[in-house]
Design goal:
With about 240 residues, this protein is mainly α. About 65% of the residues lie in helices and about 0% in strands. It comes from Stenotrophomonas rhizophila.
Amino acid sequence: MSMGKRLAAEFLGTFWLVLGGCGSAVLAANFGGDGNPLGIGFLGVALAFGLTVLTGAYAFGHVSGAHFNPAVSVGLWAGGRFPARDLLPYIVAQVLGGALAGFILLQIASGAPGFQIDGSQAGAFASNGYGALSPGGYSVAAAFLCEVVLTAFFLIVIMGATHGNAPAGFAPIAIGLALTLIHLISIPVTNTSVNPARSTAVALFAGSGALSQLWLFWLAPLLGGLIGGIVYKWMGAAPR
């Protein structure tokens, strides 16, 4: 597959992840106010993120490998599954796809009466944060540890599910469910990143607070991806 088509798949897949996952948080999580049965809540947002990866992987996996996440690309490189020369192009495509989705989500959300983004609030426009910008007020240390550990295990699941000895055709299901589980654990802590492109996509529109904390949502997931890739490779599972 040509590099242009692979990058287009990463662009579109990351676009879909941000639009679906962050869109569910912005538009549907609290629809109608607290206690309204039509609002999907934390559980619905977690499932939405999992579904974007599951459906995106089936749509684009055969084209680009369906990373949709700089931490996944870096982790797969560390695990011997992805060439270093493709890292930067993939990451650029992922960030641009996510940013376009963030922009389109902003245009949709702005169509509701009274919509505004209060950057001082935790989770504003589905942004990630720690301290005052953490949904549960979690510290920077707790947020960093959470993002590193969960991203590392996400890579372990990805590499295991896509291994040549794993059951064929089921990898997107395992990966999507893993991302759902990750959100169920960490939405209260950081609003869940494990993906620098997803964090960047909404921080661009969420205000200076989210942008000032964006460093953590690059550093921690990339470190976690490296750890997960190295650990799985060390376990002796040969690259696919």
